[in-house]
Amino acid sequence: MKRAIAAMAAVGAAVAMLTGCAASSSGSSGQHVTLTFWHGYTADDGKKLDKIIDDFNKSQRQVTVQESTKTWAVIENSLLPALTAKSGPELVALPAEDLPVYAGKGALQDLSPWYSSSANAKPLNKNAVTMEVVEGKKYGVPTGFVPLSVIYNKTMFQTAGITSFPKTWDEWVADAKKLTVTPAGSSTPTQYGLALPDHQTVANGVWQTLFLEGGGTIADEKTAKVDSSANVKTLTYWADAVRNDHISPTGLTGVAADNLFAAGKAAMEIAGPWMPATATDNHISWGLAPVPAGPVTQAASAIGVSMGITAQANSAQKAAAEKFFDYFYSKKVDTEWSLGSGWPPLRTDIPASDVSSNAVVAALTKMSSLARPLLPGVVDSSDVLSAVDDATQHAISGGESADAALKTAQSAAQAALSK
After folding, report:
1. Are 249 and 255 in contact (CB under 8 A)?
2. Domain 149-301+378-417: which topology?
């Protein structure tokens, strides 16, 4: 789900011409409409989406959705050239962080009117909808929105005598210290209380989560906010906890943190919804909990996937796509999609009890109100996040002060946003 911005730029000028391609349909209002839909759901979620599309096609006779399953990378590399050649899809699903890029190049249509008119748009998670907004307009609908959470090793908690999950940062660090085991005569723990990656994290969501909880953020659409006093305090707090209390190794990437937890060498990790399955495969008795609250708020960065109507779609196809949206976001279908995809329901009126047959989905559904989109509307998010990546790594692993590291990142992030 990484973006290929360089490849997009190569065809950007040509795709800008697509803005005017959504011409009125030449057929009658009762004509049958076919929609081509590109998406990258290739596992069990893809099988569930296949069934939803098949059921939709059978439920009425006006619209047929023809899906084309690809990898996310193939979509990123081929969508703009295909639309330029008018051989692309009318519907497309893509990682949410890519949506501002395509919207900015005129490849996606404004869906704000659908949000205003559809009864099934109103119950959608408002924070999920925020990730579809670029310069005040909604260019997509969410097909996935899941908060990061903390996975923890229940056996290690029991051994350490910890009977409840921490609620605040200070409690979290205190428990992490209890869970860190260092043999006598050694300076290196054999078990860490926390696997906290300092770079190459889950879409950089780990650090955006901590910054949000400390009262800061990374950026809005045009302005970098990396070196705020709130972010300096947050990064200093966690750098001190890692370096002074040794609750986590330094130099961890997100993948290394996953591996450390899966190997039974870390008691906790901020992670995505894939980790419970990994833990089960490694015979770990696990639990999921919200990220403990920071000094200002409790929040969690979210991983998201969007679906949009491309500029290639004419007015009849756009109306047909919106008909599919109404079906997809009905309460029954959204519940099915949640259980099939493994992510929380997108509607806020579907309680955790309705998805209790999947323990992971039920747990994440209870946390969904904490989810916040990562840098919504930011076009050059990869460069912005790369700058933050360097700062967190230097502050925690390299011994550079949080203030100095974030000042350097601020300049790089603002340069990316000012392009």
Report:
1. no
2. D-Maltodextrin-Binding Protein; domain 2 (3.40.190)
